[in-house]
Design a protein that fits this description.
This protein is of the alpha/beta class. The protein is 40% helix and 18% strand. The protein has seven helices and seven strands; from the N terminus they run H-H-H-E-E-E-H-E-H-E-H-E-E-H. It has a seven-stranded mixed sheet. Helix 1 packs across helix 3.
Protein backbone atom coordinates (compact mmCIF):
# COMPACT_ATOMS: atom_id res chain seq x y z
CA UNK A 1 0.00 0.00 0.00
CA UNK A 2 1.51 3.40 -0.96
CA UNK A 3 2.83 5.55 1.87
CA UNK A 4 1.16 8.80 2.88
CA UNK A 5 4.18 10.71 1.59
CA UNK A 6 3.96 9.01 -1.80
CA UNK A 7 0.26 9.78 -2.08
CA UNK A 8 0.88 13.42 -1.21
CA UNK A 9 3.69 13.58 -3.74
CA UNK A 10 1.47 12.25 -6.50
CA UNK A 11 -1.25 14.71 -5.54
CA UNK A 12 1.19 17.62 -5.69
CA UNK A 13 2.44 16.58 -9.11
CA UNK A 14 -1.13 16.20 -10.36
CA UNK A 15 -1.97 19.66 -9.08
CA UNK A 16 1.07 21.13 -10.80
CA UNK A 17 0.19 19.39 -14.04
CA UNK A 18 -3.32 20.80 -13.85
CA UNK A 19 -1.99 24.27 -13.26
CA UNK A 20 0.43 23.86 -16.13
CA UNK A 21 -2.36 22.87 -18.46
CA UNK A 22 -4.19 26.05 -17.53
CA UNK A 23 -1.45 28.05 -19.28
CA UNK A 24 -3.59 28.05 -22.40
CA UNK A 25 -6.25 29.97 -20.47
CA UNK A 26 -4.48 31.61 -17.51
CA UNK A 27 -0.86 32.45 -18.41
CA UNK A 28 -0.15 34.07 -15.03
CA UNK A 29 -0.61 30.70 -13.29
CA UNK A 30 2.11 29.15 -15.41
CA UNK A 31 4.45 32.09 -14.89
CA UNK A 32 4.25 31.53 -11.13
CA UNK A 33 5.32 27.92 -11.67
CA UNK A 34 8.13 28.95 -14.01
CA UNK A 35 10.39 30.06 -11.16
CA UNK A 36 11.02 26.50 -9.94
CA UNK A 37 12.86 23.61 -11.57
CA UNK A 38 9.96 21.25 -10.85
CA UNK A 39 7.50 23.77 -12.26
CA UNK A 40 9.56 24.05 -15.43
CA UNK A 41 9.59 20.28 -15.91
CA UNK A 42 5.86 19.98 -15.37
CA UNK A 43 5.06 22.92 -17.63
CA UNK A 44 7.32 21.60 -20.36
CA UNK A 45 5.78 18.12 -20.28
CA UNK A 46 2.23 19.46 -20.16
CA UNK A 47 2.73 21.91 -23.00
CA UNK A 48 4.45 19.40 -25.24
CA UNK A 49 1.67 16.88 -24.63
CA UNK A 50 -0.91 19.43 -25.80
CA UNK A 51 1.07 20.99 -28.65
CA UNK A 52 0.62 19.90 -32.27
CA UNK A 53 3.41 17.86 -33.79
CA UNK A 54 5.92 19.94 -35.79
CA UNK A 55 5.51 19.72 -39.56
CA UNK A 56 7.26 16.85 -41.30
CA UNK A 57 10.94 17.53 -41.83
CA UNK A 58 11.21 20.21 -39.13
CA UNK A 59 14.08 19.37 -36.77
CA UNK A 60 13.51 20.27 -33.11
CA UNK A 61 16.35 20.89 -30.65
CA UNK A 62 16.79 18.24 -27.96
CA UNK A 63 18.60 18.80 -24.62
CA UNK A 64 22.28 18.00 -24.97
CA UNK A 65 22.14 17.84 -28.77
CA UNK A 66 23.31 20.41 -31.29
CA UNK A 67 20.73 23.03 -32.22
CA UNK A 68 19.39 22.26 -35.71
CA UNK A 69 20.63 24.76 -38.31
CA UNK A 70 18.24 27.46 -39.45
CA UNK A 71 18.47 30.73 -41.33
CA UNK A 72 16.93 33.81 -39.72
CA UNK A 73 17.22 37.52 -40.48
CA UNK A 74 18.31 40.39 -38.30
CA UNK A 75 16.26 43.58 -38.05
CA UNK A 76 18.09 44.99 -41.09
CA UNK A 77 17.14 41.97 -43.20
CA UNK A 78 20.57 40.33 -43.27
CA UNK A 79 20.55 36.51 -43.23
CA UNK A 80 22.03 34.91 -40.10
CA UNK A 81 22.96 31.22 -39.92
CA UNK A 82 22.01 29.75 -36.53
CA UNK A 83 23.69 28.32 -34.47
CA UNK A 84 26.85 28.92 -36.50
CA UNK A 85 26.62 32.68 -35.85
CA UNK A 86 26.83 32.01 -32.09
CA UNK A 87 29.86 29.70 -32.24
CA UNK A 88 32.59 30.29 -29.67
CA UNK A 89 30.43 31.89 -26.98
CA UNK A 90 27.60 30.51 -24.87
CA UNK A 91 24.33 32.18 -25.83
CA UNK A 92 21.12 32.98 -24.01
CA UNK A 93 18.41 33.06 -26.68
CA UNK A 94 15.15 34.81 -25.78
CA UNK A 95 11.99 34.35 -27.89
CA UNK A 96 9.62 37.30 -27.63
CA UNK A 97 7.15 39.59 -29.44
CA UNK A 98 6.21 43.25 -29.14
CA UNK A 99 2.63 42.30 -28.17
CA UNK A 100 3.77 40.04 -25.29
CA UNK A 101 3.63 42.05 -22.04
CA UNK A 102 5.71 39.59 -19.93
CA UNK A 103 8.34 39.58 -22.70
CA UNK A 104 8.66 43.36 -22.64
CA UNK A 105 8.82 43.45 -18.84
CA UNK A 106 11.88 41.16 -18.70
CA UNK A 107 13.82 42.81 -21.54
CA UNK A 108 15.49 45.52 -19.39
CA UNK A 109 16.85 42.72 -17.19
CA UNK A 110 18.12 40.84 -20.24
CA UNK A 111 19.75 44.07 -21.43
CA UNK A 112 21.39 44.60 -18.03
CA UNK A 113 22.64 41.00 -17.99
CA UNK A 114 24.02 41.38 -21.51
CA UNK A 115 25.83 44.59 -20.61
CA UNK A 116 27.33 43.03 -17.48
CA UNK A 117 28.64 40.04 -19.46
CA UNK A 118 30.68 42.25 -21.78
CA UNK A 119 32.33 40.99 -24.98
CA UNK A 120 33.61 37.69 -23.54
CA UNK A 121 30.76 36.42 -21.39
CA UNK A 122 27.41 34.90 -22.23
CA UNK A 123 25.91 36.65 -25.24
CA UNK A 124 22.22 37.48 -25.29
CA UNK A 125 20.30 37.17 -28.56
CA UNK A 126 16.62 37.91 -29.01
CA UNK A 127 14.41 36.26 -31.60
CA UNK A 128 11.23 38.24 -32.20
CA UNK A 129 8.30 36.30 -33.60
CA UNK A 130 6.87 39.48 -34.99
CA UNK A 131 6.85 42.06 -37.77
CA UNK A 132 10.31 43.55 -38.45
CA UNK A 133 9.23 47.25 -38.51
CA UNK A 134 7.45 46.87 -35.16
CA UNK A 135 10.55 45.20 -33.71
CA UNK A 136 12.86 47.93 -35.01
CA UNK A 137 10.69 50.66 -33.52
CA UNK A 138 10.56 48.92 -30.14
CA UNK A 139 14.33 48.38 -29.97
CA UNK A 140 15.02 52.04 -30.78
CA UNK A 141 12.49 53.28 -28.24
CA UNK A 142 13.70 51.09 -25.39
CA UNK A 143 17.47 51.07 -25.93
CA UNK A 144 17.89 47.34 -26.48
CA UNK A 145 21.38 46.83 -27.89
CA UNK A 146 21.90 43.07 -27.87
CA UNK A 147 21.37 41.37 -31.27
CA UNK A 148 17.78 40.63 -32.25
CA UNK A 149 16.68 38.34 -35.06
CA UNK A 150 13.19 38.19 -36.56
CA UNK A 151 11.07 35.25 -37.62
CA UNK A 152 7.46 34.88 -38.68
CA UNK A 153 5.36 33.04 -36.08
CA UNK A 154 4.06 29.68 -37.26
CA UNK A 155 4.24 25.90 -36.88
CA UNK A 156 7.89 25.79 -37.95
CA UNK A 157 9.21 29.02 -36.46
CA UNK A 158 12.45 29.39 -34.51
CA UNK A 159 10.68 28.82 -31.19
CA UNK A 160 9.32 25.47 -32.32
CA UNK A 161 12.77 24.48 -33.62
CA UNK A 162 14.26 25.44 -30.26
CA UNK A 163 11.93 23.11 -28.37
CA UNK A 164 8.80 25.21 -27.84
CA UNK A 165 6.06 23.58 -29.98
CA UNK A 166 3.27 25.22 -27.96
CA UNK A 167 4.54 28.69 -28.92
CA UNK A 168 4.60 30.06 -25.36
CA UNK A 169 6.26 33.47 -24.96
CA UNK A 170 8.59 34.46 -23.51
CA UNK A 171 10.70 31.37 -23.97
CA UNK A 172 14.46 31.18 -23.45
CA UNK A 173 17.15 28.64 -24.20
CA UNK A 174 20.80 28.39 -23.24
CA UNK A 175 23.14 27.25 -26.00
CA UNK A 176 26.74 26.18 -25.37
CA UNK A 177 29.70 27.65 -27.22
CA UNK A 178 29.74 24.56 -29.45
CA UNK A 179 26.04 24.85 -30.31
CA UNK A 180 24.41 22.36 -27.90
CA UNK A 181 21.09 23.02 -26.18
CA UNK A 182 21.80 23.18 -22.44
CA UNK A 183 18.65 24.57 -20.81
CA UNK A 184 15.16 25.77 -21.69
CA UNK A 185 12.87 28.10 -19.76
CA UNK A 186 9.16 28.80 -20.13
CA UNK A 187 8.00 32.23 -19.00
CA UNK A 188 9.75 35.44 -17.95
CA UNK A 189 12.71 35.97 -15.65
CA UNK A 190 11.95 37.91 -12.48
CA UNK A 191 15.20 39.92 -12.52
CA UNK A 192 18.87 39.85 -13.53
CA UNK A 193 19.78 37.74 -10.49
CA UNK A 194 17.40 35.01 -11.65
CA UNK A 195 18.91 35.15 -15.13
CA UNK A 196 22.39 34.70 -13.66
CA UNK A 197 21.24 31.76 -11.50
CA UNK A 198 19.60 30.06 -14.49
CA UNK A 199 22.73 30.46 -16.61
CA UNK A 200 24.90 29.09 -13.78
CA UNK A 201 22.55 26.12 -13.39
CA UNK A 202 23.16 25.36 -17.04
CA UNK A 203 26.85 24.84 -16.29
CA UNK A 204 28.20 28.19 -17.46
Amino acid sequence: MPSHRAVVGVAVLAALAGAAASLFFEPTVAYRLAGTALGQRVLDASLKARAPAPPAGVAVAEPGATVPPMTLRDVAGTAVEVPRAWAGRPTLVNLWATWCAPCLKEMPDLQAFSTAQGPNGVQVVGIALDDAPAVQAFLRQHGITYPVLVDAPGPADAGVRLGNPAGVLPYSVLVSADGRLLETRIGPFADTAEIARWVAAGGL
